[in-house]
Write a structure and sequence with these properties.
The protein has 91 residues and is mainly α. It has 3 helices and no strands. α2 packs antiparallel against α3.
């Protein structure tokens, strides 16, 4: 069973790292956040929160660990998007 746990940790780390380039893009180019789907990121936050709950309830390690991190990272993306959507244009 340990080999599957290692695979789950590797998969979770890979998915988590996938969010970082977009967060960096949004930080360096705030207008980039306006071009992303708010509903997609909101659903990803909700889905990762649900997987976190599932993993905790079933005594898993990798699922709640990485899903909670992903929930936070995608939540950052969502906040970046919302702040750009509702902020006044820069002149």
């Amino acid at each position: 069973m340990m080999e599957y746990e290692n695979l789950a940790l590797l998969a979770g780390a890979t998915i988590t790292l996938a969010s970082i380039p977009q967060i960096w893009t949004n930080l360096t180019d705030p207008e980039a956040a306006k071009k992303q789907s708010i509903s997609r990121n909101a659903l990803m936050v909700a889905g990762n929160a649900a997987w976190t709950f599932y993993g905790v309830q079933n005594g898993l390690t990798a699922v709640p660990l990485f899903c909670s991190i992903n929930c936070l990272l995608i939540g950052v993306l969502l906040c970046q998007q919302l702040s750009r959507k509702f902020s006044p244009p820069r002149g």
